[in-house]
Design goal:
Elements: H1 7-23, H2 32-44, H3 65-78, H4 87-99, H5 102-113, E1 119-122, E2 138-142, E3 145-152, E4 163-169, E5 180-186, E6 192-197, E7 206-217, E8 221-222, H6 228-243, H7 246-262, E9 264-265, E10 268-269, H8 274-302, H9 310-333, H10 347-356, H11 358-365, H12 372-383
Parallel strand pairs: 1-4
Antiparallel strand pairs: 2-3, 3-7, 4-5, 5-8, 6-7, 9-10
Helix pairs in contact: 1-3, 4-5, 4-6, 7-8, 7-9, 8-9, 9-11, 9-12
Amino acid sequence: MDLSYSAEHEAFRGEVRQFLAQNWRAGEAATPEDERAFRSLATEHGYLYRNIPRRYGGSEQPVDLLRGEIVREEFQRAGAPMEVAGSGIGLFTPTLLQWGAEWQKEMFIPPTVRGEFKWCQGYSEPGAGSDLASLRTRAELVGDKWIINGQKVWTSYARQADHMFMLARTEPDAPKHSGISYLILDMRQPGIEVRPLRQIDGNAQFNEVFFTDAETPADWIVGERGRGWEVSRTTLKHERSNLNGINYHMALFKSLVEAAKRTQRNGKPAIEDPIIRDRLARLEGWILATKYSSFRNLSMAAAGQDPGIFPLLMKLNGSNLAREAYLISREFIGDDFLLSRPGDDGVGRRQNRVWSRMPFTSMHLAIAGGASNIQRNIIAERGLGLPRDSQMK
């Protein structure tokens, strides 16, 4: 397997490095204004927002996944900011580019690119998570407005967002996959209540959102009425792609190794314990295998080949990697997990608080973007051709 880039792509890497050397002060503190100015300049040069047309604020570059990967590698190496993070760029914008009306793209994409519009995703509901098509939030067209009633749950950033892209049932008598529409909603209006969900670790990353006669204009619908399920497949495809990134696991492993160097086990650094070293070595091998598998996926995409169920395998694999990292940390941090109270002084204690939250992180990764048990079912049925469980028919 040849993992090297072509001479043409290496020449492009040199251009990116030169741009970064001239325009980004690596290692120096940057203000939000600095980052905005840099993103604007990088977009002008064709490095950021590559898949977004210029008229919407992107750089409108030809599809070249390898160039995109080089940009990511070099920007990370230099510590330079990439695109504005969040579901607005990662999920909503690709969906709108494929399905939206021209006026919708002009209205919503440019301010999203600039970071002015913050978004949340209104998909999951009580009783409609992995079985998303069972959602019950209703939207009724009354005059020139949709009137929305219902509830969403596990909604990240709902308190900070000023807009939501959501699924609502608009055809109550249609089959459950056929009666759903994809709507855009202004979160800053009466009739919307956001309640933080306090987690066992004390944080409130997720929220419940309640709609009581909330309104949105009739034309704030993406795609055709009743075809929201089809539109949502685009969003979920990008969500799962984002969750499968190897960068998270590489950073997680680096943090785990630093924790093993810092933590004492039997009177010496845990990194010197042969059992811990063996587990870390096996985890690193697993992560590297995942990295090279992701290169295979990248190569297939660059060649226009269908990866099939590979993204599902990577999603499942990523959830398992995160859990293994937590189990190793628990092994050598031991009772210090109990000493990781908020307010404790010292770098070690603060880092232990990070790892003490890891069981909850690893569990939510096994749910977000498609629960692991659902991934296994799809892999078995569509990938291996196994029959469905008779109790599931």
